[in-house]
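Morning, I've got a small favour to ask if you have a moment. You're getting the sequence in one-letter code plus the fold written as tokens. Thanks so much in advance, here it is:

===
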Amino acid sequence: MLNVGTSFSARLSALAGTGLLAASIVGMFPASSRADDTPAKSSSSTWVVTLGATVEYGPSYEGSKHYTFGALPSFDVHRLGEATEYSAPDDNFDFQLFDLGGLEIGPVVGLRDDRFDLNDLHLQSQRRVRWNFDAGGFAQYWLMENRLRFRTEIRQSLWGGDGLVGDFALDWFQPLGDKWLLSAGPRLSMANSVYMRTNFGISENEAARHGHINAFDAGAGVKSVGFTVAATYTISPEWSVQVYEKYNRLVGDAADSPITSRFGSPDQNIIGFTLNRTFNINF
């Protein structure tokens, strides 16, 4: 599957855009009424599509101590008959291009939330971090098939000069009967100096205008460590639900920045709920 700002509206804008795109793609093909219907054509021409909508409750921006609701889309597609791989709730949109002896590699696209003008942090600044898409590549390897997976994503913002991030995850997936799937694993996230300065830096002018904080030059490095857990319940072949929790602890310059230490919190906790609908489409 498929965080001070108008996080809610930014996510809804992305949700609407992604939803329209997915609907346009799906609308190009005749769809069967059920995900488990016998396909009219061979499995090579039948695709299984899963569309989902997520509601999250978490920090209004990275480093915030204030919480808000947000919405996110999810999308998955694979050929009928292909084994469905497990995924974590913080996986971004990806497409596998290569399988090199079990090492899966391909492009990935993610969404970054926006943040209010720093005036809201009493910094008297006109700088604003707007919502953005980022893109790059992913690689993942199953250390134990459909049980233990290592995954990394490297993504660069598509506009706005918001910098580069690298996310690393190790997940254990545990099915319980035919209906339940549990997953859990640690997280580590890194960012370059452009990302860190944009999200956690304080310029000399901003510090002078505030009068009670010092300028802060946030450098590249590890920005957070954490843990993600999820539980997925399959209601029917067409419907499933998922609940999850993502906890990240900001570290290094991300934690030391006044944006976090003075006005926010290094503890970032996100709770989410996802509803998924699965169906078939035929060429």
The chain has one domain: 7-282. The radius of gyration is 20 Å.
